[in-house]
Amino acid sequence: MEQVTCNLCGETQLTHVYEQPDTLFDITDWFCIVGCARCGLGFVNPRPAPAQMTHYYPPAFFSEFENSGAHQNRYAAQAALLASAAEKANGAQPLLLDIGCANGDFPRFMRDRGWRVEGLEVSPNALAITDFPVHRVHLPELTLDAPHYDAITAWAVLEHVHDPRAYFTKAAKLLKPGGQFAFLVTNFESLSSRALFNEDIPRHLYFFTENTLRAYLADAGLEVQKILFDQAIFEMTPVNVLYYIWAKLRRRPLLWRDTPESRHLYIQRKGLTRGASATLRYAITHPLAAIDRCAAMLYARWQMRQKSYGIITVVARKPAS
Ligand SMILES: [Zn+2]
């Protein structure tokens, strides 16, 4: 484990936000989430060092990519954000770099729409890709250092990395003037991220706000084009909101131990197969959690209207001159 200071502003004064275990794979492994007292960036501290992370990404983590053929709507929403980079290419084939491309389905989707594509993927558990170039390094280690791409994308990637600043800086260097950087991260201003235990700890190491993202982009010399708070690409369902309200009524913070066992942990503990019947068993044995899940659907709609949804999607642009 390693101790870190704020990656955005260097501040060493940190505030404790909450603690929780790894609820996906090892419930005995606990982590502390802190916020920077100066800029508001959130992060896991202390955190596993880069070399220790493989332990937190077992092959099961990547199995969800196997049926990613079903994500056409998500890819279409992602592609729509890159319209200006495509236009700017002026009839020439624009070039895309997709950071964290996993099995490569989003780059293929873009290739089918006229783009030339490259990917970047560090996980040895992602499938081999032979139909387009894939860089098997972390973005800051890419040897290329000059403007090269018309668009760079990072869908749910920057919250996983150990040095977000190096990613923003490198992305800005690699974009051609007028090129776009589109990415999606979780939103630390949202109750879902800050208080409801909806983050994937410790795979998520950083928690961004609109202001911290604007600061990273400005430091890298990129202009914000669009900031969205919706679930067009990924969802963060605000589960535990009823438990949060109940804790508030009793004037205490919501602790992880006050939240109900998640459906995922229930299925894991009982050795069930994921599916409708396991979900039904969970709902019968955890009726309050089932009601909370229904409430979460309504609360998510309210969050999107208030721009406090758990996901932020950003499109930035490198100035044309
Ligand atoms: Zn800071």
Radius of gyration: 20 Å
Full CATH superfamily name of one domain: Vaccinia Virus protein VP39
In terms of DSSP E residues, the strand content is: 15-25%
How many E-type strands?
11
The CATH architecture name of one domain reads 3-Layer(aba) Sandwich
CATH level 1 name of one domain: Alpha Beta
Rounded mean pLDDT is 93
The arrangement of helices and strands along the chain is EEEHHHEHEEEHEHEHEHHHHE
Shape: globular
Structural class: alpha/beta
Strand order of the largest sheet: 6-5-4-7-8-11-10
Largest sheet: 7 strands, mixed
How many helices does DSSP assign?
Answer: 11
CATH topology of one domain: Rossmann fold
End-to-end span in angstroms? 43 Å
Give short descriptive properties of this protein:
binds zinc ion, 321 residues, Rossmann fold, single chain, 31% helix, alpha/beta, 11 helices
Question: Can you walk through the features of this model?
Answer:
The structure is a single chain. With 321 residues, the chain is of the alpha/beta class. The chain has a domain at 63-236 and 304-317: Vaccinia Virus protein VP39 (Rossmann fold), CATH 3.40.50.150. The chain is built from eleven helices and eleven strands. A hairpin with an 8-residue loop joins strand 1 (14-21) and strand 2 (30-36). It is globular. It has helices at residues 59-62, 72-80, 83-88, 105-111, 164-174, 191-194, 210-220, 241-249, 263-270, 276-285, 287-306; strands at residues 14-21, 30-36, 42-44, 95-99, 116-120, 134-135, 149-155, 175-186, 206-207, 223-228, 311-317. Helix 5 (164-174) crosses helix 7 and helix 10 packs across helix 11 (287-306). Bound molecules: zinc ion (ZN). Zinc ion binds at residues 6, 8-9, 11, 36, 38-39, 41.
